[in-house]
Amino acid sequence: MTHHTPTPPVRGCGNTPILKQRGQREVFCGLTGIIWLHRKMQDAFFLVVGSRTCAHLLQSAAGVMIFAEPRFGTAILEETDLAGMADAQDELDDVVARLLARRPDIRQLFLVGSCPSEVIKLDLSRAAERMTQAHAPHVRVLNYSGSGIETTFTEGEDACLASMVPVLPETDARELLVVGALPDVVEDQMLGLLAAMGVTPVRVLPARRSEDIPSVGPNTVFALTQPFLGETTQVLERRGARHIPAPFPFGEEGTTAWLAAIAAEFGVDAETFARATDAPRARARKAIATVAEGLRGKTIFFFPDSQLEIPLARFLTRECGMEALEVGAPYIHKQIVGPDLDLMAEGPVLSEGQDVDLQLDRARASRPDLTVCGLGLANPLEAEGLATKWAIELVFTPVHFYEQAADLAGLFSRPLRRHGILKDLNGGVAGGAMGRATGRMAPAGEEGSA
Ligand code: SF4
């Protein structure tokens, strides 16, 4: 072991049999990713080719987060398009031409497919190629699917990043590429830690602006900051880049282990590593210990949703003293989450995919202290007296690396505390209408109409 890598348990979850079930699923669609991606990529525009439902999803979910002029919109497919009566491609060309004429700040345009565009088999990759030719060199047009048919909401980011990889410039340079959209302030902390370890140059995907788009090639090594980037990993490997397997940078241990894997790759000596990480590690440990008080000994059950479940369960069991009963994830890519599985002690049921009714039965039978699930399941479970945490908040909140480790623990301790207070108020019975806010606000976003 080098660089203070965490000690694995005697028996980890690496070889635990995985319960695989397929049935009705309760998840958001990949359009959700636009909400954080449009904030990250400052000169990109996301044009959803979809229905009014898609427009409403984006506007209501993202309405709370728009500070500047919106950088997403919806080209709405009308019923006539769905029936194949209109030439949707021509309409789409018009919408894009008008948008780009009005918004010269747009350098990257993503045509985002949706359920209706899949249903009518609209070829968005052909449209993207055609539009790239028409608007080059100022604008690059790419496409990906955010459709909710058989996908989960974090796959939107995966599909978006994967769509960028084939057109990244080629390089022979030995470079570290960090992959996954992080809030700028968190990304800066990460870059600061890597710089203190002497690891340079570091590129990030997605880049904040199109001029900083990274190159890729056979000497690129890449580390993921998000566990849901399976397709992006594959396309990067196809470009010759090599993945550095590591636990994900959640919590003090996860962050240290993630940095240690990079340090080992770049030959950083133990002294330099300690100099870069000792102080923030100590700070993180102390901050987590305070927040984790309310989590110690509590049980947790993860429904599959964000794909962050396995690394989070590792953090909560190892660093916050929780006991995981079931850790459900939409997909379990061992290449990606294997290091986290190895660190998590044997015990929880590991499940992949979902048959929601069977899983609800298991949750009800085990009565976890906290259930992590999607919005659709949270209210019914709360009504049955179970404390819940919305998985989607984990993706909207800065949770990576040392300085956010205690905030991450806080995301789990708060619902437990609130549940306890409500229980006291109700004379020992939790449940009933909780009056949770959905964050719905006035519409925002830019609409076209195809
Ligand atoms: S992409 Fe599909 S699931 Fe998502 S909002 Fe549109 S119609 Fe609904």
TrEMBL record:
Cofactor note: Binds 1 [4Fe-4S] cluster per heterodimer. The cluster is bound at the heterodimer interface by residues from both subunits.
Pathway: Porphyrin-containing compound metabolism; bacteriochlorophyll biosynthesis (light-independent)
Gene3D superfamilies in UniProt: Nitrogenase molybdenum iron protein domain
GO molecular function, one term: oxidoreductase activity, acting on the CH-CH group of donors, iron-sulfur protein as acceptor
EC number from the UniProt entry: 1.3.7.7
Catalytic activity entry: chlorophyllide a + oxidized 2[4Fe-4S]-[ferredoxin] + 2 ADP + 2 phosphate = protochlorophyllide a + reduced 2[4Fe-4S]-[ferredoxin] + 2 ATP + 2 H2O
Assembly notes: Protochlorophyllide reductase is composed of three subunits; BchL, BchN and BchB. Forms a heterotetramer of two BchB and two BchN subunits.
Protein name: Light-independent protochlorophyllide reductase subunit N
Organism from which the protein derives: Rhodobaculum claviforme
Gene name in the database record: bchN
